[in-house]
Amino acid sequence: MFLNFLDRIKDQLEKGYPLVAYRHPKEVTVKAIFQKDKELYFVEDFRESGFVFAPFDGEQSPVLLKKDEFLSVAYPQENKLLNETTIFSEFDDLDKDFHLQMIEKGLDEIAEGTLDKVVLSRKLEVDTVKTPLETFHALLRKYPSAFCYIWYHPSVGLWLGATPEMLLQTENKRFKTMSLAGTKLAVGEQGPQWDKKELEEQGMVTEFIEAALADKVTSMTVSDTTAVRAGNLWHLKTSVSGLIGSCGLKEIISALHPTPAVCGLPKLKAKTFILNNENYNREYYTGFLGELNFREDQRRPQPRRNQENRVYRTVKNKTALYVNLRCLQWQDKKVMIYVGGGITNGSVPEDEWKETKHKSGTMLNVLFNKNY
């Protein structure tokens, strides 16, 4: 069944028609949406229904894949650990001097009080012998707790990823989001000891979300901060939930995206710094993607004493969006891997560089490790 599912995706790719296949975190079902024409559709007001793929720069319109055909299949998850190895590219240090200089420039802006935090990234170009579908299969095997996907549009390109970060989930008026910041390399199974820098970075993101949504939601609840593992890395996570007020989904998403976890603070100044200094176009890296306004119609019998059973109908409108992290872009035989890290007052440039190297290992392992 799953191999037939992959064959259907391969056929859509070979014909050059838009598609997305994906699996939600900790679920066993892999879903696919196939669009029956090659038109490039865009989201206008977030009242549309389909699969959204949005860039980092919120001034650009998100792409919408129409739900013309929908398939789902159970993924045969293997109950065994895959060997974890550290893989780095021979080209990984080519832009080191530039990246370190950019971090120093960001730290100067922070010292002057212009910025509180800025997330600086880079891209790594590698060759691979694996096909996109082999890579997607490897992502599913390796990262059962991440949102794994393969996305294609002939006018945009081919992207894959396994992101640990949710941007927003809604069910009718209920919403849930998270702040995910701070990074530590996993050593063994024990959780890490967090430094002041990571704790402050996490606090900034949580405070931003609370302030951004304060006048747009009600009954807001903020959880305790916990450590979560994503592959070979640990992060700090705080959940935020509540009820959406009188505003629409567009206002909620605009308030959140891009979050300080992928951009910085203040948001607009950090975004301007990134666009002016990173020296490349992030495109859809650190954008967001996922299901937009999917309707779920449930009918179930409701037993009543001394009456015939009646059918109860519940209609749910669901949205599930994820930040496009731990992703790569496919360009013929070349693959672009995107990695970054948050720069704050306590950042050490050489340590930040090492963090991007550890993050690049997530996708390099998937591309080159024969066990995946």
Q: How does this model look, in words?
A:
The protein is 26% helix and 37% strand. The chain has a single domain, classed as Anthranilate synthase, CATH 3.60.120. The longest helix is centred in the last third of the chain and has 20 residues, at 349-368. β1 (19-23) and β2 form a beta hairpin. Strands 3, 4, 5, 10, 11, 12, 13, 14, 16 and 17 form a ten-stranded antiparallel sheet that branches. Strands 6-2-1-8-9-18-19-7-15 form a nine-stranded antiparallel sheet, with helices on both faces. It has seven helices and 19 strands. The protein is globular and about 60 Å long. The two termini are 20 Å apart. It is α+β, with helices and mostly antiparallel strands. α2 (96-111) packs across α7 (349-368).
Task: Write a brief caption for the model.
It comes from Arenibacter nanhaiticus. The protein has 372 residues and is of the alpha+beta class. It contains 7 helices and 19 strands.
Question: What are the defining features of this structure?
Answer:
single chain, 372 residues, alpha+beta, Anthranilate synthase, 10-stranded antiparallel β-sheet, 9-stranded antiparallel β-sheet, 19 strands, 26% helix, 37% strand, globular
